[in-house]
Design a protein that fits this description.
six-stranded antiparallel sheet, 650 residues, Rossmann fold, alpha/beta, 28% helix, GMP Synthetase, Chain A, domain 3
Length: 650
């Protein structure tokens, strides 16, 4: 869209899409044919936009549009009333020189803003963005937790956990105690506090308590290896670590390697045989001695609120810095309009709170509307998910395709368990195969809304909608987000063509912590490269076509082939290895390894199983290769680089 935006007496030409020759011709035609004859003369130019404006653009535009000056600037008073009130649509046939890539051109006046819209059959997809008013001074904990107390929900259940109900008042009091306890440890504003916590009331209270006192909580994946925690804790320079007792033994192994941690707080320290010291604290004792009142830190809407670590193509996680306003953006634009979430809902997310997906699903979405959430600390096994749903009767269920496939595989699940409380299911993390959606609807009589989100963008930005589901697609754009599909040169592709998906929206990470070059590679102005290949159909549905790089999404979690290959090569039998994605019986992506053996080793099923177990011992369990195929050699380039694309689909 090209917009002429009137602010007071100024008329601004704003470029919101890449400037092509065809688009330039369209702008020139409209100005020359409809605006130039009635506009006054001037000598100013106001150009704004998120894309590069080529040198000579203004001079060329002025020449082609028959304007005598080097710039474009007119007085609003010179515009005739019929031009402002009427919205003439210019048929494409009338616009000489335009290609078939354009549908029509329209001049419209709306609320004292004059727009020129060039409707194209491709480029930037955008929905009308409603306005969210967020004050400059804004603390997310106040918005998502304290507001519920102020609005009379103190006695309402905020969290169901292990048979108990925790009210908003109880979570709010615990959050205040956590915040005050962090202050007592000397934690200052903007310092990081790592959360290695299972889904629990302690997680919710610690997350919001840290934000409220001005610190920056960093939820960590509870399924990783000790070496992963060494990297993230040192990279983030977190001063305090809050950890559940079940995970404490892993931290004990690496204490000497942690450079910046000054205090560790363990949930259930004494239950795991630990004793308090000057730097080691039991969570309950630590919080019980703290005051129950806490004044929220005077943070701005653009201050850091929390980080989430996202995996990268090198295998090293990247700290995504999210701001105070990001959770409000996702709640207002996705949770409310797409899910229709309201105070009477009960959410249950199989995806854990340390995931960006789970954090929205089961923490700030329900807290954002005064609803309730069900927390489950165990592994999200299919049968256990049914049991939790039957016990707590949630109305919104969040899962991933792998889990939905596992739940469908349970014999007679629709007869053994009551799933009728759920009014809508949601899926993200990886593409949901159409067959899983079909079988789920047949068995459980409820839809699954598939969508795509990312840690960088915080939550789902393209989604199917209730009553508008297109099986196999990721759905349509969520309000508040824009999408651009480009070729390798950054030019927009034609509608229906596959390209690289870029997204623009105000929940996008501010940057990757301490990764300046990677930030520049991924974020260009307001746009972020998702790393996904997509195409958009004529009705605005987006269809996933794979990753732009070699990263794999397994069970909703990223897997770096390089990391798995390195683990395999550490085995004495392995000479070389290449890992790619392959589909299982449910059409879900899992790692597959092609292995070249060293001399004196022969391929066998026993060796394949040994290699799988070997990888499991060294990496998180979800990363191990589900299949191993022994090959005499790997395809390579002339320079010796493995050509993984030749192995895909074998």
């Amino acid at each position: 869209m090209v917009r002429l935006d009137i602010q007071a007496q100024d008329l601004c030409l704003m470029l919101l899409t890449p400037l092509t020759n065809e688009l330039l011709q369209a702008i020139c035609y409209v100005i020359h044919q409809y605006l130039a004859p009635v506009l006054g003369t001037s000598h100013h130019v106001i150009l704004a936009g998120v894309v590069h404006v080529p040198v000579g653009f203004v001079r060329y535009l002025a020449h082609r549009a028959s304007i005598q000056h080097q710039a474009i600037y007119w007085q609003l008073s010179n515009l005739p009333s019929h031009l402002k009130r009427n919205a003439p649509s210019i048929p494409i046939a009338e616009a000489k020189g335009l290609t078939a890539g354009y549908d029509k051109i329209q001049v419209t006046d709306f609320r004292n803003h004059l727009y020129i819209k060039v409707y194209q059959k491709r480029v930037c997809s955008m929905l009308t963005i409603p306005t969210i008013a967020i004050p400059d001074q804004f603390n997310a904990a106040t918005a998502f937790l304290d507001r519920n107390l102020e609005e009379g929900r103190s006695s309402k259940t905020a969290v169901y956990f292990e048979g108990n109900a925790y009210t908003y008042a109880r979570i709010g009091e615990l959050a205040n105690r956590v915040g005050n306890s962090l202050l007592d440890l000397g934690v200052d504003m903007e310092q990081r506090v790592a959360l290695l916590l299972l889904d629990s009331p302690q997680f919710a209270a610690s997350f919001f308590g840290a934000i409220k006192m001005g610190a920056v909580p960093i939820p960590l994946n509870t399924n990783l290896r000790p070496s992963d925690y060494v990297y993230m804790l040192n990279d983030s320079r977190a001063r305090v670590l809050l950890v559940h007792g079940a995970l404490w033994p892993q931290i004990l192994q690496i204490l000497s390697e942690l450079k910046y941690i000054r205090h560790i707080v363990v949930v259930g320290l004494e239950q795991v045989g630990g004793q308090e010291t000057a730097t080691l604290h039991d969570f309950d004792k630590w919080t019980q001695k703290a005051p129950v009142e806490l004044q929220a830190a005077e943070t701005s809407k653009d201050d850091s609120a929390f980080w989430l670590y996202s995996s990268g193509s090198t295998g090293f996680p990247k700290g995504c810095v999210h701001l105070q306003h990001d959770m409000t953006y996702c709640t207002e634009y996705y949770a409310k309009p797409i899910l229709g979430i309201h105070e009477g809902d009960i959410t249950f997310s199989a995806a854990k709170l340390f995931f960006a997906y789970g954090l929205g699903n089961n923490l700030y979405f329900p807290f954002g509307v005064g609803a309730s959430a069900v927390y489950y600390a165990g592994r999200p096994l299919p049968e256990d998910m049914f049991k939790v749903v039957q016990q707590y009767r949630p109305t919104i269920f969040f899962g991933v395709p792998t889990l939905y496939a596992g739940m469908l595989a349970l014999p007679d699940a629709e007869k053994r368990f009551d799933f009728t409380s759920v009014r809508v299911c949601v899926s993200a993390g990886e593409a949901l195969p159409a067959d899983i959606l079909r079988r789920w609807k047949e068995k459980f009589k409820v839809d699954i809304l598939d969508g795509i989100g990312s840690t960088e963008i915080l939550h789902i930005f393209i989604s199917n909608r209730i009553g508008e589901i297109r099986p196999g697609s990721s759905g349509k754009l969520v309000p508040g987000y824009e999408a651009l599909i480009t070729d390798e040169s950054g030019h927009a592709v034609k509608q229906g063509e596959i390209g690289n998906l870029l997204i623009r929206g105000d929940s996008t990470t501010a940057n990757y912590w301490n990764k300046h070059e990677k930030t520049k590679d991924v974020i260009n102005g307001h746009w972020i490269h998702t790393g996904d290949k997509y195409y958009e159909d004529a009705e605005g549905y987006f269809w996933y076509c794979g990753r732009s790089d070699d990263m794999l999404k397994v069970g909703g979690q990223w897997v770096s082939p390089v990391e798995v290959e390195a683990a395999l090569i550490a085995h004495p039998a392995v000479l070389e290895a290449a890992v790619v994605g392959d589909m299982d019986a449910d059409e879900l992506i899992k790692p597959k390894a092609y292995v070249v053996l060293n001399q004196d080793y022969e391929p066998s099923e026993a060796l394949a199983n040994e290699l799988k177990a070997f990888v499991k011992e060294r990496l998180a369990a979800f990363k191990y290769p589900r299949w191993i195929e022994f090959v005499p050699e790997l395809p390579k380039t002339a320079t010796g680089k493995i050509q993984r694309f030749k192995l895909r689909g074998n």
